[in-house]
Amino acid sequence: MLRLRLLTWDVKDTLLRLRQPVGQSYAAEARAHGLQVQPEALGRSFREVYGAQSRRFPNYGHGQGLSSRQWWLDVVKQSFRLSGVHDEAALTKLAEKLYRDYCSPNNWEVLPGAAETLSRCRQLGFHMGVVSNFDSRLEAILSQCNLRHHFEFVLTSEAAGFAKPDGRIFEQALRLGGARPEQAAHIGDDYSRDYRAARAAGMHSFLLRAAGPGEGPEVPPEHVLPTLSHLLARIEK
């Protein structure tokens, strides 16, 4: 049995997921403003713009003079421009509204088994925190989705100044959680940013993904979580 004191959690696609693809929610908001844009086109534009913005201004422009709010407003506007919308007044309204809406449970849902697993972990006495490549809205999102109370701290990459897989964000989490690396485990869905990065920091880690061959780098079966409900059985082995 692992002697763990602290569990840290990724959020997106580990505890919460988007209710619908970005292109669909952006297109619905555009329709509310009298604009017709194809969801598929918006989805493609968003992926292209998001990737370019992340490369040019990593971690929401931290250290480059941008706020995460401005970073996201630029992404939304550029996504619509690339999809053929050039009314600047409309773009500003759309960007502001969507930035607010992505703080809402209307756009996020709790993954199956997440609330129950978090509750059980707390009952067993684990200290828990969040380590996420997210912006300052995460606290509000977790609160509105009724998950915030499970965690002693929420550490975003924006607040930390470092994004996973940088080990310094895990070092900050260990200090916040009052644990040594060997006393902590991280749970996430991304092999590089979650599983491998946490292990490089000296922590235990578990990868949330359907078990099976041909799904990326080899991970020992005992470190794979087909669902979050498998976590406690893995810890107790």
TrEMBL record:
GO terms for cellular component: nucleus. InterPro entries: HAD-like_hydrolase_domain, HAD-like_sf, HAD-SF_hydro_IA, HAD-SF_hydro_IA_REG-2-like, HAD-SF_hydro_IA_REG-2-like_cap, HAD_sf. CDD domains: HAD_dREG-2_like. It comes from the Eukaryota. SUPFAM superfamilies: HAD-like. PANTHER family: HALOACID DEHALOGENASE-LIKE HYDROLASE DOMAIN-CONTAINING PROTEIN 3, PTHR46191. Belongs to the HAD-like hydrolase superfamily. This is Haloacid dehalogenase-like hydrolase domain-containing protein 3.
